[in-house]
Amino acid sequence: MLTLLVVAAVLSGLLYLSVRTVADAAVETTQDSILGAATVAIAEELRGGDDGLSVDIPYAAFSMLGATGEDRVFYRILIGEQTVTGYDDLPVPDQAPSGLTPYFYSTAYQDAQVRVGAVTRTVLVDGSQVIVQVLVAQTRTTQDAISRQMANRAAALGLGFFAIAAVLSLLTARSVLQPLQGLAEAMGRRGPQDLRPFERSVPLELTPLTGALNGFIARLRGALSRTETFITEAAHHVRTPLATVRAQAEIALRQTDDDATRATLGRVIRAVDDSARSAGQLLDHATVVYRTDQRSDEVLALGPLITDVAAAFHTTADMRDITIKVDVPHDTIALRFDRLLLESALRNLIDNAIKYSFEDGSIAIALKAEAGQAIITVKDRGRGLGDDSGQRLAGRFQRGANVEDVIGSGLGLTIVRDVARAVGGSFTIRNREGGGTCAILILPLG
């Protein structure tokens, strides 16, 4: 629209200049015609005789000049360089006029700009022919007034043209941008999992754009499909061989009595566990990142879900004599979210609590609803965060300085944080008073 307005402004300026130039030329031509007619009328009244030259200036000549306005008029009639009558200081033209064809020129006279018409005529005086020159001058007051009036009209015409052009520019800009706005709104209403081709009817000019969008959507859909396939296959092809290696190492450990071999096999088992956990959490994190944009939301009852996830860890906790206590309200607290993402966050919270708790300890899991939010807390009596901050430990591959002897990948808290961000919630973890940690996952309801 700004571009169109600039063009309209330029055209309005050119229109003003054109009208002003044509008006000035028309006014000057009209004034010259009247001035020339008056000059010729005076010249035609020249009479020669034996007694000399007689001049009878007709009243009609000055009447014509006075009809256009209140200008001052000057005249001069001369033979050669001798003035017969009139203003003897009225400037003569640079070149002599040819006959009764008026010659016009402008000059300054008596503190004013005047327009002068000049003609010549041959008159018989005392038996000989003499050339008589007739000059008639008129001030330009009326001409300037008419020019100003025409200029004002030209300016009004230019402003009117610009106003109309501005309205048309606005309508044109809206007409051009409306299909684009409709296209943007249609794309904006789509969810991240909606990768259908764009089939909205658009003007012919936007067909290349929609074609490019559909091509991009097709490539993105293919890339996401390959990513999902890769994550699934990687989880299977990485975890299964590692589980097999661990099982074989445990069998070998039970069958050997050699201390050195048992120590080596123990290190192998530990390395396999470390690799399995790292690979598993890397794949879990990749799944979380992928599912964040490709969520399959459903209404989830948080109490039963937390109870089910916690129950899956009872065997692991019992091996270290750790008690898991779950406190969820009887009232249903529902949340619309992706089950896989929420289960992944809960598993990592509980797994971290078990992993860093001391034996014969306890873990308390609680759920409550407050101010339109679901607050999930997981507390343990383990090692705590030490001197590290919970914000730093939630970063990728960040581990505390006091847990170097525990197998871990540094991705568990990152997964929890990313899940919380995906739903617009928050996650914090801090040292618990009396020892241990307190992890708080806040998820908005509704």
Structural description of this entry:
The chain has 10 helices and 14 strands. The protein is of the alpha+beta class and about 450 residues long. The strands form 4 sheets. The chain has a 5-stranded antiparallel beta sheet with strand order 4-3-7-6-5. It has a 5-stranded mixed beta sheet with strand order 9-11-12-14-13. Strands 1-2 form a two-stranded antiparallel sheet. The protein starts with a helix and ends with a strand. The model has no long low-confidence stretch (mean pLDDT about 80).
Largest sheet: 5 strands, antiparallel
**Oligomeric state of the chains?**
single chain
Quantity of strands, as a count? 14
- Class inferred from helices and paired strands: alpha+beta
Distance between the termini: 43 Å
Rg is 51 Å
In short:
The chain has 446 residues and is α+β, with helices and mostly antiparallel strands.
